[in-house]
Fold these 3 entries.
Entry 1:
Amino acid sequence: MHSHHNALGLVTASRPVQPVTLLRPHAARRAARFFVEKFPGKALYAVKANPSPDLIAILWESGITHFDTASIAEIRLVRQIAPEATLCFMHPVKPEEAIREAYFDHGVRTFSLDSLEELDKISRATNGATDLTLCVRIRVSSEHSKLSLAAKFGADPAEMKQLLIATRQVADALGICFHVGSQAMTPAAYSEAMERVRAAIVESGVTVDVVDVGGGFPSVYPGMEPPELEAYFEAIHRSFEDLPVSYSSELWCEPGRALSAEYSSLVVRVERRRGDQLYINDGAYGALFDAAHIGWRFPVVLLREPESEVRDMPFSFYGPTCDDMDHMAGPFMLPADIQPGDYIEIGMLGAYGCAMRTGFNGFGNGARVIVDDEPMASLYIEQDNESALPSNVVKL
Ligand SMILES: *Cc1c(COP(=O)(O)O)cnc(C)c1O
C-alpha cells in the first residue's frame, strides 16, 4: 500500500480522480492501547464498525484479544486474521447453522440472546454444550445517544427474570449485556443502564459471571464533543462495583466507534459548484451514509497550497450517484472561494463510514493510502498538546 505524510502530500503528488481512503494505523493503535490500559475490564472490538483486515490486525497486535462479531462472515474473517483471538457471537438473533459453525469450527463459546427461542436454538446448535458463556441482552434506554439501539434487540426488563433463570440452567457462565446506543454523549447512559442490570439480578436471584456494557463509547465530531473517556470508565467501574455479582465476575465492553473512528478519513474532489452546494465524488452510497441519512457532521478541510485566505462559509454536498438522496446537508464549513478541481479531506470516517460503502452506480472503488499525520479530531490526544497539533487538525 502507498503511503504519504498527509492528505495534502497525496493530492499534490497524484491529483487522484477517485476518492482516496486515508488510513492512520498509529491512531488505531493509540485507541486500542487506551482501552487495554484504562478500561477496568476487557474490551471486545465490535467488528461491524470497521471490518478492514488491516484494522483487525492492528487492534490484535495492540492488545485487543476479544472480538464482538455479529455474523458468520465476521467470525471467519477475524479467525483468519487472528487465529488465537477469542470470538464472541453477540447478535441476539442468529441462524442455527451459523451458531453451529461458530461453535464447532471456530471455537466460539460466547453467545448473546434476548429470547427463550434463541436459548433453545443455541442449545440445539451446540448439541447441548456445557461450556457456554451466554449473555442475556436487556433492553435499556438510548436517550443519551445519537443513534438508538433500543427498539430492535433486548429483552424487556419484565421478561428478564424468566430468561435469566432459564439461561442460568444452560450456561457455564452467565452474562448480562446491553447497548446504550451509539455515540453516547454522557457517562450517565451507562450508570442508568447498570441500574436496570441491578434490578434484573436482584429480581431473578441468579449468579452473574459477566457484565457486558456493550458499545456506545463516543468519538468526537463537529457539534458533538463528549466528556473524556475516563469519565465513562469511572462511571462504569463504580456501577459495576455496586452490583450484586460475585467477586470473580468479569466486566466487558464492546467498543466499535471509539476504536475505529480515528483510523480513516477520505479525500474527495469537487466536481462542480452550484452556489453553496458542492458536487463531490463520494457520498451517501460511499463512505458518507451517516452524513446523508442521519445528518451526521464530519470535520472537513480544503487541501490547497497556499491555504485559502478567504473566510469559511457553510456548504452542503451532493454525492456522485444520480440519486437525489445522495445529499449531505452538513453544514460543512469551507473557504468561500472553493472551486471544481479542489480537494477536501473529510475526517473521522473510520467508524461505519468506510464500512458501509456500496458499489451503486459504478462508484465506490477508490484507493487506500497510509498517512502518518494526526486524525482531524481525537479523543486520545492530550488536551495540553493542542498547540503542537498539525495544521489539518481542525478546532471543532
Ligand atoms: C454496534 C454494536 C457495538 C458497537 O457499538 P459502537 O456504538 O460503535 O461502540 C457493540 N455491541 C453490539 C452488540 C453492537 O450491535
Entry 2:
Amino acid sequence: MHPSLVTSLSLLSLLFSSVAASVKPPSLDPWYSQPRNISEYEAGAVIRSRSVNTKLEALLTLPMDVSVKSVVQYLFRTTDSLGKAAASVVTLIEPRNSDPTKLLGYQVYYDSANVDSSPSYLIQTRNETLDFYEPDFGMIGAALNKGWWVYTTDYEGLDAQYTAGLQSGHAVLDSTRAVLKEGPSKGLSNNPRYALWGYSGGSLASAWAAELQHSYAPELNFSGVTLGGTVPNITSVTQTINNGSSAGLAFSGTFGTAKAFPNMTEWLNQTLIPSKSAEFYSIANGSYYYANAAGANKDMFSFFKGGERAFLDPVPRTVFQLSGTLGFHGVPVAPLFVYKAVKDQVSPIKDTDKLIASYCAQGARIQYQRDLNGSHASEGLAGSVDAFSWVSDRLSGNSVNSGCTTKVVEIVSLDPKGASLFGKKLYAALS
Ligand SMILES: *[C@@H]1O[C@H](CO)[C@@H](O)[C@H](O)[C@H]1NC(C)=O
Ligand SMILES: *[C@@H]1O[C@H](CO)[C@@H](O)[C@H](O)[C@H]1NC(C)=O
Ligand SMILES: *[C@@H]1O[C@H](CO)[C@@H](O)[C@H](O)[C@H]1NC(C)=O
Ligand SMILES: *[C@@H]1O[C@H](CO)[C@@H](O)[C@H](O)[C@H]1NC(C)=O
Ligand SMILES: *[C@@H]1O[C@H](CO)[C@@H](O)[C@H](O)[C@H]1NC(C)=O
Ligand SMILES: *[C@@H]1O[C@H](CO)[C@@H](O)[C@H](O)[C@H]1NC(C)=O
Ligand SMILES: *[C@@H]1O[C@H](CO)[C@@H](O)[C@H](O)[C@H]1NC(C)=O
Ligand SMILES: *[C@@H]1O[C@H](CO)[C@@H](O)[C@H](O)[C@H]1NC(C)=O
Ligand SMILES: *[C@@H]1O[C@H](CO)[C@@H](O)[C@H](O)[C@H]1NC(C)=O
C-alpha cells in the first residue's frame, strides 16, 4: 500500500476512535441528568434532545453495511415503578431512503443494572469494558436497511432498574409518545404504523408496555408487538438460573428491582450478609458480560441471611408480584407474535404458556410459536426470521385474525427467507 494512503488510513482511524472516545458514558455525562422540575413535564414530553454521530459503532461493526441518515436522542419524561415522574432516554435512527410511514421500537436486551450499559451509549461506542448486543443490533441494522425508522429506549431509566417491569413498560410507551411527537420534524410521517420488538430482557420491556398500554397510554395504537424468549415471572427466572451459567443475571435483577422500590432497597441492605455485600454489589452492578462471568454458577441466595427463604419475606414477595410478574396489569390490545424455545433454561415455558392462556381468555390476539428445538440463547436467532417477517406484515398494514393460535415448530437452521429479510451479508454471517 502507498505510504501516504497508510498514513491517511491511520489518521482516519485515529480520528474515528477519538470521536468514539469523546462519547461519555451516561454515569459521567451531564446530558443524562434529570431536571428538578421533572414533574412539570407531561408523560412522553421531551426535556432535551441532541443529534449524535451517524457512525454508530454498534452498527459499523456488523457484517453488513447499514444505512443511517440521522440519529437523534431525546431525554423524555416517563413514570417510574412508584408512579413518580422520572426521565429516560430514547435513540431515534432515520435510515437513508426511508419509508416515513414505518417505525419500529426495538428494545435491546441490555440485561444489566449498570447505567453505562444503556443502549443509547453502547450503540454509539463499542466500549470494550462493557457489552455489545450483536444479535439485537443486527436486527436493528436489518430494519434500517428496509427503510424503517427505528427507536431504541433506555427502558431501565437513568438508574438502570433492570427487571423493574412497571418502569420498563412506562418508558417504552413514553418513548413512543416522544418519537411520534418529535419525529415528524425530522421527516417521520405524522401518522406512521409502529410496532415493538424485543427478545429476552427486551421482551420484558416490550411485554410490560403491551400489557400497560391500554391503561397508561390509551391513545397509542401499535400495529403489533413481537416478544421472544419471554420472561413473565422474575421470581421463577431467579430460581431457575440460580447456581447455573446465567446466575449473574439473578444478582443484577435483584439489585435492579431493589433500586426501583425504597422498601426493597432497605430490605436488600438489611438482608445481605454483610461480609458478602461487597461481592454481591460488584457482580450485580456489572455489565451483562461482567455479571455473567463473575456470577456464573454462584448461589445468589447464599448471599442472604436465611438463604432462599429470605425471598419469601413480604417486601420481595410483594415487589416481585407487583413489578416482576406479567399478567396482572391489563391485556395487550395490540396483536402479539410470541416465540419461545420449549426448553428455554432461563424462563420456564410453563410461565409463558400460562400468560398466553390468560391473555387469550381475555380477548387478546396472539400467534404463539413454540420451538421444540433450541435454548434461550439460540431461539433469539432461530425465531428472528419469523419475527421479522411478522413485524414486516404489521408495518405493511396486513391485518391479523382475531383470537389465538399456537404453532409448534422445530427450527434447526436459519430459514432461507432470512436472506431477503436481513440482506445476504447478515444472513450469511448469522447462518
Ligand atoms: C467505558 O466504560 C467505563 C465504565 O463506565 C468508563 O470508565 C470508560 O471511560 C468508558 N470508555 C470509553 C472509551 O468511553
Ligand atoms: C423546567 O425548568 C427549566 C429550567 O429552569 C425550564 O427551562 C423549563 O421550562 C421547565 N420545564 C417545565 C415543563 O416547566
Ligand atoms: C389502529 O390501527 C389499526 C391498523 O394498524 C386500525 O385498523 C385501527 O382502526 C386503529 N385503531 C384505532 C383506535 O385507531
Ligand atoms: C411466579 O413464580 C413463583 C416461583 O416459581 C410462583 O410461586 C408464582 O406462583 C408464579 N406466579 C405466577 C403468576 O405464575
Ligand atoms: C447497609 O447500609 C449501611 C449504611 O449505608 C452500610 O453501612 C452497610 O454496610 C449496608 N449493609 C449492607 C449489608 O450492604
Ligand atoms: C455502579 O456503577 C455505576 C457506574 O459505573 C456507578 O456510578 C455506581 O456508583 C455503582 N453502584 C454501586 C452500588 O456500586
Ligand atoms: C447451589 O449449589 C450449592 C453448591 O454449590 C448447593 O449447596 C445449593 O443447595 C444449591 N442451591 C440451589 C438453590 O440449588
Ligand atoms: C413495598 O413497596 C411497594 C411499592 O410501594 C408496595 O406495593 C409493597 O406493598 C411494599 N411491600 C411491603 C411489604 O410493604
Ligand atoms: C429437535 O427437537 C426434536 C424434538 O425434541 C428432536 O427430536 C430433534 O432431535 C431435535 N433436532 C435437533 C437438530 O436438535
Entry 3:
Amino acid sequence: MDNGQDTHELEAAVARLQAVRTRIVRASGEAGRDPATVQLLAVSKTFGPAAVRALAAAGQGAFGENYVQEALEKQRALADLPLVWHFIGPIQSNKTRPIVENFAWAHSVDRLKVAERLSAQRPPGLPRLHVCLEVNVSGEASKGGVAPAELPALADAVARLPALRLRGLMAIPAPAADAAAQRAAFRRVRELFDALKARGHDLDTLSMGMSADLEAAILEGATIVRVGTALFGERNYGNA
Ligand SMILES: *Cc1c(COP(=O)(O)O)cnc(C)c1O
C-alpha cells in the first residue's frame, strides 16, 4: 500500500474494525462472556476486492458472501490471501457445486435436498463443509429458514451426511421494535439450539446478530456475528 488512496482506505478499515470489535467486547462483558467466544464474520457482499483487501490488512480473516457469482470473482482476485469464506445467502439447489468447491462454511442450509447435494458434491480433498441450519423464528412465509417444528428432523438427517459437519444454527430475525423484542427473537434461536444439543447433537455455533443488533445477539449467546454495514459502509446494490 504505497499511495495515498490505499493508506486512507486502510486507516478507515482499521477504525471501523476497531469500532465493531469494541462493540463485541462491551456486549460480551455485559453478558459475562469471554469476547474470544464471539467470532466476527465480515459480510462483504456488494463490496469489491479492494475493500476486502483493506479489511484483511487490518486483521480480519473471515468473510461472508451472499451471491455465488460475485463471491467467486472476489475470491479469484484475493487468492493470494489466506481468507476463510462463509456462504450466507439463500442456496439454490442448482448452485450447490460452486459453494462446496469454494467455501469453508454454509450458514443458510434449510432443506435436506440442498444438504444432500452439498455433501455429495464436496470435493474429496477438502475437509467437511461446516454447516449451520437457518431457522425462521419470525414466522414470515417469505423468508428462508426451516420452521422450528421441522428443525429436529432436519438436524438429525443433516448430521448423518458424511461430507458435512453440522455446527449449529443461523437466524435473521425480522427487525424488532426495541431491544427487548430483539433479544426475545435471539433467545428463541438459542432455545432451539439448546434443544438440539439436549437431543444429542454436538453443536457449538450460533450465527446471529448483524450491524444493528449484534449486542442483543451476543447477550443471547451468539458465537458468530455477521456484520456488513458497520465494517464497509452502506451497500449500493447497483454495484452488485
Ligand atoms: C447482508 C447480511 C448481513 C450483514 O448485514 P448488515 O446489517 O449490513 O450488518 C448479515 N447476514 C446476512 C445473512 C446478510 O445477508
